[in-house]
Design a protein that fits this description.
The protein has one domain: 50s Ribosomal Protein L5, Chain: A, CATH 3.30.1440.10. The longest helix has 11 residues. The relative contact order is 0.23. The protein is globular and about 40 Å long. A six-stranded antiparallel β-sheet has the order 2-3-1-6-5-4. With about 130 residues, the protein is of the alpha+beta class.
Length: about 130
C-alpha cells in the first residue's frame, strides 16, 4: 500500500512550541518534525511519512481507546475521492497527554491535522487495516 502522510499544526504565540511538538510526537513518534514561520508571530510544525509503520502509534491508540467504529466513520466521511486524501483532525491537548481525540476542523488552539494521500483503489484496504469493523 502506497501512502503519503503529512502531519502539521500551527503554533500560536500563546503556545509553547516544544509542547506542540511533544503532542505531535505522542501520535507520530517516528516523525522528524520541522518548524517554519507561518505569519507574523505564528509558526507551523510539520513532518511527512510514507509507510504504514509511520501510522503505527495512531493504529495502536485506536485499539487501546476502543474507538475503531468512530474512527472508521470519520475516515470514510473525511475521504475526498477526487483528491485521494483523507483529512483527520486531533485535539492538541489530548495528544499532549497521549490520548486520541478527533475534532471537527478548527479548535481554539487549532488541531493537529493529518492528511493521508492514498490511491482510490487502495482506500478500502487502508480503511480495513486502520479501522476494521468491530
Amino acid at each position: 500500500m502506497r501512502i503519503e502522510v503529512l502531519v502539521r499544526s500551527v503554533v500560536y504565540p500563546t503556545e509553547d512550541e516544544s509542547k506542540v511538538i511533544r503532542a505531535m510526537e505522542n501520535l507520530f513518534p517516528m516523525g522528524k518534525f520541522e518548524v517554519r514561520s507561518s505569519g507574523e508571530e505564528m509558526k507551523e510544525v510539520f513532518c511527512k511519512g510514507y509507510t504504514e509503520k509511520f501510522l503505527g502509534r495512531l493504529y495502536s491508540l485506536l485499539r487501546e481507546e476502543r474507538i475503531l467504529n468512530t474512527a472508521r466513520k470519520i475516515i470514510k466521511k473525511n475521504y475526498d475521492r477526487e483528491e485521494g486524501k483523507i483529512r483527520l483532525f486531533f485535539n492538541k491537548q489530548a495528544a499532549y497527554v497521549g490520548r486520541l481525540n478527533f475534532t471537527e476542523g478548527e479548535t481554539p488552539l487549532g488541531p493537529i491535522e493529518v492528511e493521508i494521500t492514498i490511491e482510490e483503489k487502495e482506500f478500502r484496504d487502508f480503511l480495513d487495516w486502520m479501522a476494521p469493523r468491530v
